[in-house]
Specification:
CATH architecture: Up-down Bundle
CATH topology: Four Helix Bundle (Hemerythrin (Met), subunit A)
Oligomer: single chain
Number of strands: 0
Largest sheet: none
């Protein structure tokens, strides 16, 4: 999957601002850590520690925002806001929507990260 043009443009802006090495590392960590953090968030969604659930979702939202992943950030924000309102099942459904969007983007992000790693300085 190719990345949507707004995500590609956002990443290119980050490369101009921060450099390709920094963005490459950030993408590498994001692609490695985000699936693990989703699973941790799922476990927290079933528990009663609303503060921990909110903190975890907030951190994920920040990582999405840092990488200009607007729609994924918005879905993560919906998860963050659900920390006290919906039932655990409803929180899980929001997490599933967020995870599905991540899955849609992950191939394109990985391809961009690989291309960035091999791009001349």
């Amino acid at each position: 999957m190719n990345l949507p043009s707004e995500i590609h443009a956002g990443l290119e802006s980050l490369v101009e601002e921060l450099g390709k090495t920094t963005v490459n590392r950030a993408l590498q960590m994001f692609l490695r850590d985000f699936p693990v953090q989703i699973q941790e968030l799922r476990r927290a969604a079933d528990g009663n520690d609303h503060a921990e659930f909110k903190r975890m979702a907030h951190n994920l939202k920040g990582r999405c925002g840092m990488l200009a992943l607007k729609t994924l950030r918005e879905r993560t924000y919906a998860v963050e806001l659900s920390h006290q309102g919906p039932t655990a099942g409803q929180r899980q459904a929001l997490i599933s929507a967020m995870e599905a969007h991540y899955q849609e983007l992950s191939t394109g992000l990985a391809a961009y990260q690989t291309e960035l790693a091999t791009r001349p300085a």
